Amino acid sequence: MEQRGNGNTIELKGMSLEEMEHFVAERGEPTYRGRQLFQWIYGRGARRFKEMTDLPAALRGALTDQASIGGLTSVSQQVSRDGTRKYLLACADGRQIETVLIPDDRRLTACLSIQVGCALACAFCLTGKMGFVRHLQAGEIVDQVLALGRELAPGERIGNLVLMGMGEPLHNYDASVKALTILLHPLGLAYPPRRITLSTVGLVPEIERLGASGLGVNLAVSLHAATDAVRDRLVPINRRYPLKALMDALRAYPLPPRRRLTFEYTLMDGVNDRPEDARELVRLLHGLRFKINLLPLNEAPALPFRRPSRERVEAFQQRLKSAGILATIRESRGWDISAACGMLATEAGQKGLDTDGLLPYYSFRGVEQSGSSLGS
Ligand code: SAH
Asked: Is 314 a catalytic residue?
């Protein structure tokens, strides 16, 4: 599908290698020119045709007339006390998304957004409260990495990518997979598959498709509960894809050798952090190759849950560890700038504005959309 850039030009950013080859072939050029374009735009982050010095001048001229290289523009940046950086980026249509850079000893991890807002309405997530505005296109997903790359200090590198920002990657399946293909491609951003993690709330048919795609990226699943009774309440999509269906899909998932699934489990006081929750969890996950990240809830006034005490969090972790489970407590990063897990929600979204009247994809949202202040 061709997209129109400014002034009726064709937008190249977001095209796959095959699409770029097709684009040049249609204009009478050899297909390797498509490869060069792909490498310039994604591999080297070029934003102007005149940078592409190994293309003939006539072709550069034709490209300038007929094509464009769009991209996100950086609106603002906030830096957390813990070093986490949150970028507000604007799409060509003015919609805004948030992308987070999380420093770890030596590496930076970029947390990419996949949609403006989210349709899944998890009861403890501020992006969920914002509602669904629109899908991001593949080019807008990839460009978050290129845009952040321009903001780095000398010597810094984005080593890991996590599709864990705003939105649900498997609800925007085609764009996510296309973006991953570009991020993984040796002529594109050339990330090794083990350096990329896609996180999903658990859309079963798309988990199966992703497994069959052979992309080989890591899969994280936002579990948050070990029984349908608790999960139905926290993650409304569980009513469509209950735990049995989810676990069947995960047991069948083709994990690369020496790789594990990751489960995310946001701990909420008295809701899913009780001894019986740990016991059910051990039983549910038995036989899978996995690790589990425990995330003490990031609280916000709009959320009806509380963060458990440190003792309760550690007791929960200990129960899992005693059962031989690799369970880590993930410290919250970027909380003071609302960049932590589940806190990404742009201001327009927080005010409940400007959603184009789009209905969420999933029709049974369990939570009222909140127009109240979200206290960020
Ligand atoms: N939609 C995908 C990608 C988002 S990842 C998914 O659900 O996996 C964001 C992670 O932060 C998810 O695990 C989500 O459940 C978690 N999260 C959401 N709100 C949170 C909160 N208030 N505190 C801690 N974690 C939260």
From this structure: no
